[in-house]
């Protein structure tokens, strides 16, 4: 495991010199800006004095890293600087618009209309800096029958078909075990922002980008939507461990003596040969493998249970059958391929101590992504950022005393 908190001594990041004003909170926006920060962008996280991003107060299983820090917040906010401002104050607006003069990107994922009502809509920033790229994230877009609804990940999964297509038919529809809608939304933010920046280099003009979770989840399920709409048939979830509602056997998850494995698209006859039971050949017909897929799965599972996972995987891989082990998060962290890729790292946090995390996933030959900063404390960089804008110590003290600016940092 590598600690990457030390000053970055290699080449500059691909986005070095880019400044982003980040008003986002929870997962979608913060993940998007963290991806950009990992590539060298200067991300200034603008949050509430004292409380900060809502994710600072939310956690899993009532556990806090180092006893104080939310793992949810730590996961999505490294490489950023925190500026704590009361957005409703006139002084804060003056500060933000002064930063906007030189900023490249604004990111926000408040409910539609909130930023505009506070005086921080796209038009306000564009009036100060016509080259600015302004990216908004929402649950359902900025108008329509759902516009006032909360745009939370699990709700979006339920509304866009993926939950109804996941799990077994005799069990409730199953949400993906991660914030999948939010993470898809974050990726859409990033590609929208990068495309707009490229267009700005060609045209000299900034623009507004609107990303919403519902549209993103539909786009990422296009093959399922194309199938359903063109045949006017919904998918039916299987009762067994078949891995997709549109697939036939053997595609799915199978038990072994000591765990579970996955088997993907593979020649059925070759699988039967490896399992060593010729009677399974009676299912070797495309129609049977789909129409009776639960029965086929059960018959295959009886055979896979006879093997230990390692033994069975060795046999399947030798026969060039697509397969893998089902692993928990902790098992993944110790996976030899994950270790080989350097995907598990850590950084040092002033209150949480060592924070183990996943490293940046995209590799660059000349401008590598890196972890240069810990996830900030609320207002940790307020003085630093405002000093860069020309505020002196007396002015900063006055702003802090009025509650306009929150000053934070390690005790």
Automatic annotation (TrEMBL):
UniProt xrefs under SUPFAM superfamilies: CoA-transferase family III (CaiB/BaiF) (SSF89796)
Pfam families named in the record: CoA_transf_3
InterPro entries: CoA-transferase_III_domain (IPR050483), CoA-Trfase_fam_III (IPR003673), CoA-Trfase_III_dom3_sf (IPR044855), CoA-Trfase_III_dom_1_sf (IPR023606)
Keywords annotated in UniProt: Transferase
GO molecular function, one term: CoA-transferase activity
Gene3D superfamilies: Crotonobetainyl-coa:carnitine coa-transferase, domain 1, formyl-coa transferase, domain 3
Presence of the UniProt keyword Nucleotide-binding in the record: no
Transferase in keyword set: yes
Signal peptide feature range: none
Protein name in the entry: Crotonobetainyl-CoA:carnitine CoA-transferase CaiB
Organism: Limimaricola pyoseonensis
